[in-house]
């Protein structure tokens, strides 16, 4: 680029071989033309606004990634890395590196990862269907008993005061909330597209533990939790819950394997969650069969 006097008349004075081979930009045919007319994406980088400072101070600058198209030059949405540096007192070298394909692969990798995580969550839900059903049936059974108590209370011969009725209503409400939380957890895990939110790790851990609560009780697994207050973090809650579930599932598998071969075995699980500097450490330790040397 040259012509130090007017930013609207900067012209392309030469291009390298790579630019000549680039059929998308057609720079080989645009030597001598005004840069804004020849390459509209330059305008969006503010290179022209910074031109004089860069030349006068002999400074280089990285303008980062620029999104371009679709427009009259590009029939697709593309991404370019744009850098520039002065080469003479009145000339500026602009380096354009197209990374559209890299960005496309990166976006596809994120999409594939999301689908894989979603499939993993659905698989876990299938494996824990029995425990989940039992966990939901518990509040439903309590509600059913309370409803029966209300029917009995409706008998004219039964004396029941307002305080007792309110107590029954409160207990029903508590069990409804309990069942609703379980259903919400299932909905969150089954969603394909999730968003980041302010999340409590203690609540996420407890949500994951709820899926194992019944199995742990039936199998006599002692669970010991040591948790120090941790700050809320901005993250995808469904993903962190899935991580907790995966680790708990691995521990559960090891405990069951050892219990099958040792009738006197007392399974236990120690869980800790604590902040350390600018990180939070989660530990899940069991006394199960452990991992094989190959693993």
Protein traits:
295 residues, alpha+beta, three-stranded antiparallel sheet, three-stranded mixed sheet
Précis, in short:
The chain has helices spanning 17-21, 35-38, 47-56, 100-127, 129-153, 162-190, 201-210, 213-218, 237-261, and strands at residues 61-68, 78-88, 91-98, 196-199, 222-227, 233-236, 268-276, 279-286.
Write the H/E string, N to C: HHHEEEHHHEHHEEHEE
User: Which percent bin holds the helix content?
Assistant: 40-55%
* Overall pLDDT: 76
In order across it, which strands form the biggest sheet? 1-2-3
The global form is elongated
Q: Total number of helical segments?
A: 9
Tell me about the largest β-sheet.
3 strands, antiparallel
Strand content: 15-25%
Spatial gap, N to C terminus: 59 Å
Query: In total, how many beta strands?
Result: 8
Low-confidence stretches: 1-7
CA radius of gyration is 32 Å
- Secondary-structure class: alpha+beta
Structure notes:
- By secondary structure, the protein is α+β, with helices and mostly antiparallel strands.
- It has helices at residues 17-21, 35-38, 47-56, 100-127, 129-153, 162-190, 201-210, 213-218, 237-261; strands spanning 61-68, 78-88, 91-98, 196-199, 222-227, 233-236, 268-276, 279-286.
- The strands form three sheets. It has a three-stranded antiparallel β-sheet.
- Mean pLDDT is 76; it is low at 1-7.
How is the secondary structure organized here?
Blueprint lengths: L16 H5 L13 H4 L8 H10 L4 E8 L9 E11 L2 E8 L1 H28 L1 H25 L8 H29 L5 E4 L1 H10 L2 H6 L3 E6 L5 E4 H25 L6 E9 L2 E8 L9
Parallel strand pairs: 5-7
Antiparallel strand pairs: 1-2, 2-3, 4-6, 7-8
Helix pairs in contact: 4-9, 5-6, 7-9
């Amino acid at each position: 680029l040259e012509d130090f006097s007017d930013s609207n008349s900067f012209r392309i004075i030469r291009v390298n071989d790579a630019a000549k081979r680039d059929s998308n930009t057609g720079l080989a045919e645009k030597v001598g033309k005004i840069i804004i007319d020849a390459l509209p994406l330059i305008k969006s980088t503010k290179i022209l606004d910074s031109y004089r400072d860069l030349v006068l101070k002999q400074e280089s600058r990285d303008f980062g990634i620029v999104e371009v198209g679709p427009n009259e030059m590009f029939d697709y949405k593309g991404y370019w890395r744009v850098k520039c540096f002065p080469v003479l007192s009145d000339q500026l070298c602009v380096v354009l590196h197209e990374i559209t394909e890299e960005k496309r692969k990166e976006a596809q990798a994120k999409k594939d990862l999301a689908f894989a995580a979603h499939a993993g969550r659905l698989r876990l839900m299938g494996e824990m269907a029995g425990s989940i059903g039992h966990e939901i049936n518990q509040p439903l059974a309590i509600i059913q008993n309370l409803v029966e108590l209300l029917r009995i209370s409706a008998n004219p011969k039964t004396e029941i005061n307002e305080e007792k009725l309110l107590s029954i209503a409160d207990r029903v409400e508590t069990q409804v909330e309990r069942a609703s939380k379980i259903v919400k957890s299932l909905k969150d895990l089954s969603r394909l597209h999730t968003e980041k939110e302010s999340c409590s790790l203690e609540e996420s851990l407890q949500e994951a533990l709820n899926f194992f609560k019944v199995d742990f009780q039936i199998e006599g697994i002692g669970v010991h939790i040591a948790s120090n207050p941790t700050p809320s973090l901005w993250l995808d809650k469904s993903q962190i819950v899935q991580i907790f579930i995966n680790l708990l599932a691995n521990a559960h598998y090891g405990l069951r394997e050892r219990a099958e071969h040792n009738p006197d075995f007392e399974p236990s699980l120690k869980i800790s969650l604590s902040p350390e500097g600018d990180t939070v450490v989660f530990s899940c330790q069991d006394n199960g069969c452990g991992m094989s040397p190959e693993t």
